[in-house]
TrEMBL record:
UniProt entry keywords in alphabetical sequence: Glycosyltransferase, Transferase
GO molecular function: protein-arginine rhamnosyltransferase activity
Protein name, as recorded: Protein-arginine rhamnosyltransferase
Reactions this protein catalyses: dTDP-beta-L-rhamnose + L-arginyl-[protein] = N(omega)-(alpha-L-rhamnosyl)-L-arginyl-[protein] + dTDP + H(+)
Alphabetical list of Pfam families matching this protein: EarP (PF10093)
Family per similarity comment: Belongs to the glycosyltransferase 104 family.
Alphabetical list of InterPro entries matching this protein: EarP
Function summary: Protein-arginine rhamnosyltransferase that catalyzes the transfer of a single rhamnose to elongation factor P (EF-P) on 'Lys-32', a modification required for EF-P-dependent rescue of polyproline stalled ribosomes.
Length: 400
């Protein structure tokens, strides 16, 4: 723990900002809980916070962290108390900092208790030091410029003496930053410099040295068939590592099979398609480190692929009224800065095709792989210069 973090921690302990509740409603898939889980782990491990994670769908959490028992109401893992957020919601004493992830709407009785929290402490000796409960709505990650104007905005409760603050993760300095654990790059670099070890730890046979290794994680509207065909006719061999899930079902249709399961592989032309198990979040991170290029989606895998410092193709989560399109454009505008023009054009074209269900020119994209690789490293380095999301949250609470 650095001196700076240690000082923050002492301050937070004095100000009683040590108990954190993170509420997570799983809208769908794994990204909501994936982000909350990473944040909970970091707050507990790096900042010594007492963290409760309240999740309404433990099955989703269990999928990315298999040690979770999805039948338990309360469990303790990695110094985090995990509670099943069920209805009716029990009367809990609120934490000092309450994270409402992605506008998930806190239980009414909990909000009432938050408003009462300072006066509840009226009898205790530390009343004067006790701060109002910090209520933070953690928003989705976006590269759009409006985020900077909305980050940290306060929204007073219409009836209760409470204020909710909007906290926007983002790529610009005036946003909340992105999740990045201490030591992430060291771990990544160590495994990237020893690929045999990496594949061994993942239980995946070491790919041939002339193969371009690609991981594929996407939604069901992605043109998986087009992509696989592009690899079949690619000018160089491609090994696609495909975690079981949506894409493996689409790949099965493409391969003319009823299903594909972990362990199956299909060889056609220059493509070897290898289905691998859906892995723990930790191992999935490593998979991204091991691949030459990663197809990712949503928010969390998208971010982790950037930290992998390898070329990335993002399938953005569909939103109503095409609200996702400016979000994709904003990211590409930012990401392409400093990337040679031809490579940027090819990167944009592949994103366009992948997100709009069109034909894909893989060869034209991959001919710039060296430039894309160098740029991916530079991008990750540059992003890591800014403070990470957890540090920003802790600082924000300290400064209030
Ligand atoms: O799963 P996602 O689509 O999640 C989300 C949610 O749908 C959410 O509602 C939406 O708003 C958001 O996307 C934008 O994609 P994401 O964010 O990439 O999360 C996937 C998680 O699954 C991530 O934490 C990595 C993890 N994962 C594994 O742990 N093992 C695996 O094998 C794979 C493929 C992924």
């Amino acid at each position: 723990m650095s001196n700076k973090v240690m000082l923050q921690l002492i301050w937070l302990k004095k100000s009683k900002m040590v108990r954190w509740d993170i509420f997570c409603h799983v809208v769908d898939n794994y990204g909501d809980v994936g982000v909350c889980w990473r944040l909970a782990c970091q707050l507990a491990t790096e900042f010594g916070m007492t963290v409760r994670l309240l999740v309404d769908d433990l099955g989703s959490l269990q999928r990315i962290y298999p040690e979770i028992d999805s039948n338990l109401t309360v469990q303790h893992i990695r110094n985090i108390q995990i509670l099943h957020w069920a209805k009716p919601f029990p009367d809990l004493v609120p934490a000092d900092v309450v994270i409402e992830a992605f506008g998930c709407e806190l239980p009414a009785n909990y909000v009432t208790a938050m408003a009462a929290a300072p006066s509840q402490a009226a009898d205790s000796a530390d009343t004067k030091e006790r701060a109002e409960c910090m209520w933070i709505n953690l928003e989705y990650l976006s590269a759009e410029s409006w985020v900077e104007g909305c980050h940290r905005l306060a929204s007073p409760h219409p009836r209760l003496p409470l204020t909710k603050y909007f906290f926007f993760p983002g790529f610009a300095a005036a946003t909340g930053g992105v999740i990045r654990e201490a030591g992430l790059f060291t771990q990544r670099d160590s495994l990237q410099s020893d690929p045999k070890k990496l594949w061994y730890e993942l239980g995946i046979p070491v790919p041939a040295s002339d193969e371009t290794i690609v991981s594929l994680f996407c939604y069901d509207h992605a043109p998986v068939g087009h992509l696989l065909e592009a690899w079949v006719t690619s000018t160089s061999p491609v090994r696609c590592l495909l975690p079981e899930g949506v894409a493996s079902r689409q790949a099965a249709t493409w391969a003319g099979k009823s299903h594909l399961i972990a362990g199956d592989s299909v060889q056609r032309g220059n493509l070897v398609l290898q289905v691998i198990p859906f892995m723990s979040q930790e191992n999935y991170d490593r998979l991204l480190w091991g691949c030459d290029c990663n197809f990712v989606r949503g928010e969390d895998s998208f971010m982790r692929a950037q930290w992998a410092a390898r070329p990335v193709i993002w399938q953005i989560y569909l939103q109503q009224e095409d609200a996702h399109l400016p979000k994709l454009e904003a990211f590409l505008n930012l990401y392409c800065q400093g990337l040679v023009q031809e490579a940027a054009k090819a990167l944009r074209a592949l994103h366009q095709g992948w997100n709009n269900n069109e034909q894909l020119d893989w060869d034209n994209f991959w001919r710039y792989h060296k430039a894309l690789q160098q740029h991916a490293i530079a991008w990750a380095e540059q992003l890591a210069q800014a403070p990470d999301l957890a540090s920003n949250l802790v600082n924000f609470c300290r400064n209030r």
